[in-house]
Amino acid sequence: MHIVVCVKQVPDSREIRIDPKTNTLIRQGVPSIINFYDMHGLEEALKIKDQFGARVTVVTMGPPPAEKGLKQCISLGADEAVLVTDRKFAGADTLATSYVLAKALEKVAEEWGPVDIVFCGKQTLDGDTGQVGPGIACRLDLEQLTYVCKVVRVDPDKRRVTVQRQLEDGVEVVETSMPVLITALKELNKVRRASLPGMIRAARYKPIVWTTADFPDLDAKKIGLKGS
Prior knowledge:
Helix 2 runs antiparallel to helix 5 (about 195-205) and helix 3 crosses helix 4 (about 130-140). The protein is about 30% helix and about 30% strand. The chain has 5 helices and 11 strands. The chain is α/β, with parallel strands linked by helices and about 230 residues long. The chain is globular.
């Protein structure tokens, strides 16, 4: 089983600033953290790995300093981490971001085998839209389960997943087939702490870096500010 987790380094919400000319976030000098909803997606992927022996690949799109967050994911138990970075990706909104991440997931599948489950956080702390996960699912024609508060059952043999979705008026139990994209709520689990061997591996680990040059069929009109 192959699981991909999409994570994002987000500015500390207490220090977010906006460029008045471009209306984009000013990241320089602002400390970043991994979006905590994404961390719950990673934890669920690692729980499935513990149970079934899955491979977990983490992907992020962002500037080079995002490597720090990927190393944190490796310390927790992820197998590989990919940083998709290029100045041409800068200023992307959810439309452009979902396009690039979908392309990255296709490349991940080419490199390490078909993807069975994709985890995303329900939303990011900086954008707060909840659109990127569903956008990826639509672009890759994946089943999607949003606002998931519990993974009830994963059946690798039958390729089925059963979850509980948190709705405004209650909880909905849904079962669907793989491949599937799941967006995680914080109620999904409790994120583990890194082990000493995990921290040692992370310190030595160098994330894989992909730029626009690694995507020959990338449509330049659909990325960055132009594609937003």
